Amino acid sequence: MHSVPVATACALYHRFYQSASLRVYEPYLVAMSAIYLAGKVEEQHLRTRDIINVCHRYFHVDSEPLELDSQFWELRDSVVQCELLVLRQLNFQVSIQHPHKYLLHYLLSLKALLNRHAWSRTPICETAWALLKDSYHGPLCVEHPPQHLAVAVLHLALRTYGVELPLGSVEWWQVFCEDITKSIIESIVFKLLQLYDMEAKCT
Amino acid sequence: MDRMRKIKRQLSLTLRGSNSGDKSLSETISPQDTAHSDSDAMSVRGSGSLRGAVRGSGSVRTGSSFSMHSLLQSYSSALRRPRSLGRSLSSYLNHTTRLEIVHEDVKMGSDGESDQASATSSDEVHSPVRVRLRNNPGRKISTEDINKRLSLPADIRLPDGYLEKFSINSPLFDKPLSRRLRRVSLSEIGFGKLETYVKLDKLGEGTYATVYKGRSKLTDNLVALKEIRLEHEEGAPCTAIREVSLLKDLKHANIVTLHDIIHTQKSLTLVFEYLDKDLKQYLDDCGNSIHMHNVKLFLFQLLRGLHYCHRRKVLHRDLKPQNLLINERGELKLADFGLARAKSIPTKTYSNEVVTLWYRPPDILLGSTDYSTQIDMWGVGCIFYEMSTGRPLFPGSTVEEELHFIFKLLGTPTEETWPGITSNEEFISYNYPRYRPDCLQNHTPRLDSEGVDLLSKLLQFEGKKRISAEEAMRHPYFHSLGERVITLPDTTSIFALQDIQLEKEPGIRTSSLSDSAVVSSGCGVVTE
């Protein structure tokens, strides 16, 4: 599965639970349907069977693969049914703008700005990219516009490695994105770090 | 009278206010959501930034599977669900029954385009700018009020008894309308219900959908009902999902309007505005010879609709006369966005097989997957030619034959006319004879020199050399339409301008194109 459908699936999932309750709808089922739907939206069609088998494997690492019996068919029907539910809940608004292209664009401009040594010494690109990927664990992707997310992860990556950018008349993020402020960046970074904390607690 | 007006203004203020309220509230709610799902995981924060960095680079190494896995894991542990097969399966099954209840009860109606607030809002949201309406129990609530309140079209007919319901117990009018209430109201009026629409004739059948002509009981207007069969195993077809998700955002005078979406167990029905015929039928009906002035009007409207799509980074990818609908006023609208999609990343390659062969550009025929808005412009050229001559430009039935037709007219490309073509393996393998470019003018006798110039700019081998929809609209060919057509607002038809009028088609046969045309041709039968 490519990274764009994965990101779309996460975004669909979070968007769904923005308006629906975790207690009412089974999160695993919604997650499976979100993956299925994302495959359709992003032109990488996935088979329900594969999704069910892979998900089953994740949840029950040690158990046998599912039998192709009536339970399996019922499970598949509920995935398909749930897909329609997700569609309706989201009002069919399933095309999603991802921050990745903005981040790529920003990284390219930064590379031109910094000297080559500083660039090659620190894995800014990789870190920012990974941060962005991890941000999909939480509902950040539906709460903030893609440009803001891209700027925020880049900011965090730069700060982590202590890379200073040459000071211009305006801050660098204002060059990339006009309507972002320091406080927006900080709130995104804060939420992102919370996600990592939450995961550390869980594992 | 004055008071009525005041109340209406307040109403519309409230509506607008509650929209913006939706947004701000959903933003304030979401952090709580996060907190809720991991109520005990919020304590350690000090060393966050360092940990973040370590984690971040950690997941670089393990790649995306790690991210996906940990996502699932974090949720599963947050909820502390037992991981036994039996339990989770039974909860899936439970869920199916619950699903059905939801379908019946909550009335999560698909209220089509009438619902502007997107899925990001929560239900019981009140306006931050609370406009207090005077409590006035004796006031009569009119149809007009309700139309205003629910932002419905003015010509709608509310079901009997709907108004009475409001006058008996109408707390609804005294407070701002929540999203759920609005949905319920819309559904009571008849949106999202199959009974609201009467099926008339069958118009056509595609691979996954059947199109019917229908009539809406709400407005008495004709509608087109596109009934999409839901495959039991596959769910909604992806073309339908894309079509709906795109059309919901596209509002333009030259793009077909999606009125409503009806969702039942077996099918998904899209309700579109009804237009009399497509360009193909129109061509047939006027003996394959459209009045040249009308050709210009149609082409301009096609470009106008396309420019709007391209501006919003949407490619149509399936332009052909069958997908261009025309009503009796002469308004042309783009339809069938099943193959279109939001263009997200310009560098991305798309799946190869998209446009109907006759209207497919040569770079795509030769295997290019790296295309952009120019993919649609070649098709515009082909349609332009077809409108002015009455026959398709390159009616090839295979890729090889299609390219053969193209090169026969435009000349076999060389390194000068198409840089890089001589290293294209598919091009080499076809081994076409060396044709010299023909003069377009000889093939299009009815087209003036400016028209030929525009046509040649559309029919460029290389995508990047093709004229864009926006540039094409400013081409001298259209100067006779005047300056103002370019600056019209998106949702205004070009026929709103006084000096723009459809010419009568001389060769028209029995058709309802315009009543006067039918009468003047001495034919008394008006077909519906």
TrEMBL record, chain A:
Keyword terms: Cyclin
Ranges of residues in domain Cyclin-like: 6-88, 101-194
GO molecular function, one term: cyclin-dependent protein serine/threonine kinase regulator activity
Listed InterPro entries: Cyclin-like_dom (IPR013763), Cyclin-like_sf (IPR036915), Cyclin-Q_first_cyclin_box (IPR048055), Cyclin-Q_second_cyclin_box (IPR048053), Cyclin/Ssn8 (IPR043198), Cyclin_N (IPR006671)
Any GO BP annotation: regulation of transcription by RNA polymerase II
CDD domains: CYCLIN_CCNM_CCNQ_rpt1, CYCLIN_CCNM_CCNQ_rpt2
Family: Belongs to the cyclin family. Cyclin-like FAM58 subfamily.
Protein name: Cyclin-Q
Organism of provenance: Aldrovandia affinis
Organism classification: Eukaryota, Metazoa, Chordata, Craniata, Vertebrata
Automatic annotation (TrEMBL), chain B:
Biological process terms in GO annotation: exocytosis; neuron projection development
Record field: compositional bias (Polar residues): 15-34
The keyword Hydrolase appears for this protein: no
UniProt enzyme class: transferase
Positions that bind ATP: K226
A single GO molecular function term of this UniProt record: cyclin-dependent protein serine/threonine kinase activity
GO cellular component, one term: synaptic vesicle
Documented EC number(s): 2.7.11.22
Similarity comment: Belongs to the protein kinase superfamily. CMGC Ser/Thr protein kinase family. CDC2/CDKX subfamily.
PANTHER family assigned: CELL DIVISION PROTEIN KINASE, CYCLIN-DEPENDENT KINASE 16
Protein name per UniProt: cyclin-dependent kinase
Native organism: Aldrovandia affinis
